[in-house]
Design brief:
The complex is a heterodimer of chains A (363) and B (353). Chain A has 363 residues and is α/β, with parallel strands linked by helices. Chain A has 16 helices and ten strands. In chain A, the strands form three sheets. Chain A has a four-stranded parallel beta sheet with strand order 5-6-7-8, with helices on one face. A three-stranded parallel beta sheet of chain A has the order 9-1-10, with helices on one face. Chain A has a three-stranded parallel beta sheet with strand order 2-3-4, with helices on one face. The longest helix of chain A is centred in the middle third of the chain and has 18 residues. Chain B is α/β, with parallel strands linked by helices and 353 residues long. Chain B has one domain: TIM Barrel, CATH 3.20.20.70. Chain B has a four-stranded parallel beta sheet. Chain B has a three-stranded parallel beta sheet with strand order 9-1-10, with helices on one face. In chain B, strands 2-3-4 form a three-stranded parallel beta sheet, with helices on one face. At the A-B interface, helix 4, helix 12, helix 14 and helix 16 of A face helix 3, helix 11 and helix 13 of B.
């Protein structure tokens, strides 16, 4: 591969990657422009190998979406509904409790909870939810509420973001998912999610969470109307914040699914571009330990290949995913643990179970 | 050290042995395998073209006495959902194919217990008379062997009669894994590996071009996959009659053969080692039907140079629940998006446009 790297004039970045030096924004562009995806994959794999050797992690997890009623009507979202619209739903705490109890015999180690910015639910609803979850699932990482939801809860409850986070943490919140980051660029945001908090606000809320000891993930929604430069800019912002806080655990690249979205785009992003973007994230985000291959959005086959393009985590069993599937995802809704492990082994890696915070679970 | 020697050999375009191929397949890393395959592919196809064919699979019957464990398509005789196509249905399908810019049909069926050779001769003559422009790519070796048995005629006689009636080429199906140990387990009633190869050899000698396939990821070992490739390579040395090789991973759903699903990574590695071993094959087809368009695109960087067929109709893989669909425009777009020039071709790989 070294010869190929030379052919594409990427020797310099290769050396930097080997030496663990940071790749600049302009170098990132050069890497992305390489027409052979194998070369970019190879470079990303160097970083991945150094951090995680031959291990690919997965988690036994459960997703719960507590409502799809949302005051933000982001154009790319096929999940959100107005309050009285067909298909709108909101779960009571006891309904959420039932969903947990339905799977109580599964040794689930991560509960992933996100929902719409509901117009009426106050802080009590969220605090009660967390307390109930903690009681039912003391061994699972409670990974709940994106920065966007936290901002909304604070607004509706007339509290500061910090106070909301403190209350939730006190109730048992372990960490936050990385959603709502989309693409940080303000022009793009204005076009795809005008009602949503700005990129700066997102980063500010996450910084507050990190300062309170709440770890988070981070995401990027790509493949819509943004350019490669916008993606690189986004990754750079994440990397800068991580330098300050060290609070990000995992980056999740989310390819935009066009099927049921109100955001119509001319050219759907290709599988190769998706892999190149994931690889670029691994190369740029030298300070974020984990990159997830999110099979819900990528589809199983591409998610498997992504393990050779920088990703080291295959997400999980995911009971009842709604957001990606309402957007047109054709992946299954749930995977059995054995299937997950077999896939990881079949791709040439050693499967290791983790919890939400990426701590290995002994089996 | 040994690995490096093999890599050097491949880079110098020297043929590798069975043992070397096994070693490279087992120990070569994902990128290295892809790179070696890609280099060979680019030498064989320096113009950056990726070809595809517009055709339709027509399955004339699903009534089959073979009963392969991996098959979700067949029905045993007397099953209520068994069928044999009528000429009216056949005509309708061919006319649709022509309307969509199609140039050929893949005519394949099953090992029907009662249909005699006359039925097939009549079918071919009918098609050729009505649609002389349509290329008939039909009857895989297991069907030919079956025809030979139930009509008490030799393979040569069967093939010659079919050719006289209008058969243009033979698809490479039914090869599965060309090792009898494996065949006994997964398809005990199907022709043997030698019979499969024999049909192809005779067909080539009679001037027919054929393709070759491999269905992997069930009961075979990695070495048996390599053995399959070597057998094809040996025959190709003799006849030069294979136009392309098409490997695809077994799809276990709805079948009686339980197996772990082949991952895209295993598929890409297998595609790459195929490109490396089959140095006398001009074309390697990627399988979007089983792997999806995105992995098919990536496969163009792992040795593949042909996107296969538009599959206006496909029933056999679809019966396992794997249903990818693509229009001509989509196929062209996928090829372009991956950085290649799409060109429509015929079965013999001559370019149409």
């Amino acid at each position: 591969m070294i010869k190929k790297i030379k052919d594409y004039k990427l020797e310099n970045v290769y050396k930097k990657i080997i030496n663990g030096e940071r790749i600049t924004v302009s170098e990132a562009k050069e890497i992305y422009n390489c027409p052979d995806p194998k070369v970019i994959g190879y470079l990303a794999h160097l970083v991945r190998k150094k951090l995680h050797s031959n291990i690919t992690t997965y988690v036994l997890n459960q997703h719960i979406n507590y409502t799809n009623i949302c005051v933000n009507r982001c154009k790319f979202c096929a999940f959100s509904r107005e309050k009285d619209q067909d298909g709108a739903f909101e779960l009571t705490i006891s309904q959420i409790k039932r969903k947990i109890e339905e799977n109580i015999n599964e040794p689930i180690r991560e509960i992933h909870i996100v929902g719409g910015c509901h117009p009426h639910f106050g802080l009590d609803y969220y605090v009660d939810m967390i307390k109930e979850l903690k009681r039912l699932r003391p061994n699972a990482t409670l990974k709940c509420f994106t920065a966007v939801e936290i901002h909304h809860i604070a607004k509706i409850s007339n509290l500061s973001v910090k106070d909301v986070l403190i209350k939730l943490k006190h109730a048992g919140l372990d960490m936050m998912p990385g959603g709502g980051a989309e693409i940080f660029d303000s022009e793009i945001r204005r076009k795809i999610c005008p009602e949503k908090i700005s990129g700066e606000k997102w980063l500010e809320i996450i910084e507050t969470a990190h300062s309170l000891g709440i770890k988070t993930n981070c995401t990027m929604l790509f493949g819509h109307i943004e350019s490669v430069e916008h993606r690189i800019h986004h990754l750079d912002k994440l990397r800068r914040l991580q330098d300050k806080t060290n609070g990000f655990i995992c980056f999740i690249p989310l390819p935009f699914l066009t099927k049921n979205s109100r955001l119509k785009i001319k050219n759907e992003i290709s599988g190769i571009e998706k892999l190149k973007t994931i690889a670029l994230a691994r190369i740029m985000l030298d300070n974020i330990p984990h990159i997830k291959s999110y099979w819900i959005m990528l589809g199983l086959k591409l998610a498997q290949a992504a393990l050779y393009f920088g990703a080291n985590d295959f997400d999980g069993t995911v009971v009842e995913e709604k957001i990606g599937h309402m957007a047109g995802a054709t992946s299954p809704n749930v995977l059995a643990r054995k299937e997950l492990e077999d896939m990881i082994t079949g791709c040439g890696f050693k499967p290791v179970q983790r919890d939400g915070l990426f701590r290995f679970v002994s089996q | 050290m040994r690995l490096q020697n093999i890599i050097n050999k491949v880079s110098k375009e020297e043929r590798i042995t069975f043992d070397e191929a096994c070693f490279l397949y087992e120990d070569g890393d994902f990128y290295e395998l892809g790179k070696l395959a890609d280099e060979i592919r680019r030498k064989k196809h320096p113009n950056n073209i990726v070809t595809y064919v517009v055709d339709r699979n027509i399955n004339y019957s699903n009534i089959c006495v073979c009963g392969c464990k991996f098959c979700a398509f067949y029905r045993p005789p007397n099953d209520p959902s068994g069928y044999v196509i009528t000429f009216e249905e056949l005509d309708k399908k061919i006319e649709e194919t022509i309307q969509l810019g199609g140039t050929q049909i893949l005519l394949q069926g099953s090992l029907h217990p009662d249909l005699k050779l006359d039925f097939y001769i009549e079918m071919l003559s009918h098609i050729k008379q009505k649609y002389p422009q349509i290329h008939i790519h039909g009857f895989s070796p297991p069907e030919i062997v079956h025809f030979s048995k139930i009509n008490n005629l030799s393979i040569e006689q069967i093939l010659q009669r079919l050719i006289d009636a209008g058969l243009d080429s033979i698809p490479g199906g039914g090869a599965e894994i060309l090792v009898d140990r494996v065949r006994k387990e997964v398809s005990p009633n199907k022709c043997t590996a030698d019979e499969w190869l024999y049909v192809m050899e005779i067909a080539h000698n009679l001037g027919l071009k054929t393709t070759a396939t491999m269905m992997f990821g069930h009961r075979e070992t990695k070495k048996e996959r390599i053995l399959h490739l070597i057998k094809l390579r040996e025959l190709q040395d003799k006849t030069k009659g294979f136009t392309a090789f098409i490997p695809w991973g077994f799809q276990p759903d709805n079948t009686r053969l339980k197996a772990r699903k082949v991952t895209s990574v295993e598929y890409l590695r297998t595609l790459a080692i195929s490109r490396i071993v089959l140095d006398n094959f001009q074309n390697i087809q990627v399988s979007w039907v089983t792997m999806g368009s995105e992995i098919a695109q990536l496969a163009l960087f792992f040795g593949g140079n042909d996107f296969g067929s538009t599959m206006i109709e496909e029933n056999v893989v679809a019966a396992t629940g794997v249903k990818f669909r693509m229009s001509i425009e989509q196929i062209r777009k996928h090829i372009k998006d991956a950085g290649f020039i799409p060109k429509q071709r015929k079965m013999d790989y001559t370019i149409i446009e």
